[in-house]
Amino acid sequence: MQFGLRRQVSATIPELKSVFSHPIPPPPAPPFPAECTPEPSLNLQLQILLQPISQHSPYPSSYAPIFQFLTRHNFIKLGQQTHAQIVLHGLRPNAFLAAKMVAMYASSGDLDSAAVVFDRTDNPSSLLYNSIIRAYTRHGFPEKTLEAYTRMHFLGLPGDNFTLPFVLKSCADLSRVCMGRCVHGQGLRVGLEGDFYVGASLIDMYVKCGAIGDAQKLFDKMVVRDVASWNALIAGYMKEGDIGVAEDLFGWMEGRNIVSWTAMISGYTQNGFAEQALALFDEMLQEGSEIKPNWVTIVSVLPACSHSGALERGRRIHDFANGIGLRSNSSVQTALAAMYAKCGSLIEAQRCFDMIAQKGKNLIAWNTMIMAYASHGCGIEAVSIFENMLKAGVQPDAVTFMGLLSACSHSGLIAAGLKYFNDMSTIYSVEPRVEHYSCVVDLLGRAGRLVEAKELISQMPMLAGPSVWGALLAACRSYRNLEMAELAARRLFVLEPDNSGNYVILSNLYAEAGMWEEVKKLRLLLKCQGIKKSPGCSWIEINGKSHLFMGADTSHPQAEEIYKFLEALYEKIKIAGYIPDTTFVLHDISEEEKEYNLTTHSEKLAIAFGLLNTSPGVVLRVTKNLRICGDCHEATKFISKIYEREIIVRDLNRFHCFKDGSCSCGDYW
Question: 427, 469, 548, 614: least CB-packed within 10 angstroms?
Answer without folding.
Answer: 427
